[in-house]
């Protein structure tokens, strides 16, 4: 589950926020398998989609994370969940996307580098209301 500003995100919906206000992020990973899973890392990468096949990930002047954009997860037991909190601060207006990936964090396993990607979250940063 992904929550942006306290609202559950649907991959078809656009979340609107204001420039200069921290936007709380919450990602909850639930283990529905019968075995413990982990370790792995959760990484959140903001980008802009130029609608021509180009994604711009060089956004350090437009977006900053409050806290870290990578979280290390040791183990999630069966039927349990693990929740991670962070926040984004938008410095400019525009349409942005958040790419959320789970990466294998154990070199002894044979899973691909990025083996679980959630649908991108679409966030529109607008001017503050006066």
Automatic annotation (TrEMBL):
Pfam families: Ig_TRAPPC9-Trs120_4th
Residues that span the membrane, as ranges: none
The organism's taxonomic lineage, starting at the top: Eukaryota, Metazoa, Chordata, Craniata, Vertebrata
The name this protein goes by in its record: TPPC9 protein
Sequence ranges assigned to domain Trs120/TRAPPC9 fourth Ig-like in this UniProt record: 15-125
One GO cellular component, as annotated: trans-Golgi network
